[in-house]
Design a protein that fits this description.
This protein is 34% helix and 32% strand. By secondary structure, it is α/β, with parallel strands linked by helices. Helix 3 (54-66) packs parallel to helix 4.
Length: 111
Amino acid sequence: MLNRLRRPSRPQALLTEAGTDRDALALALRLREVESWPECREVIVEGRLDAKASGRWDDCLRRIEDSDHDHVIIDLDRCESIGATAVKRLIVVRELLSAESRELLVFPFSE
């Protein structure tokens, strides 16, 4: 009877030595911010842009808002996935920059 009440064990194949999911490590968010030229800031997004990464994404967008760059490029070509909240936040920042006669260009997310 005790055997039927035991919880099933977690599959060990999905865990690394540190106890983290390998797929999560491979697709973790990486943001590279580059000043392409004095008037342009470029952000290269790699990995997953989801709720887990929302704090880092918001920090990046705040730096864009606070910068004095006339042009901002967001490169989503290496982005694995993007959540609706991240897209909404990007639209808000685009509107804020547009109101200041600044330009936000987004390279498409490709699957």
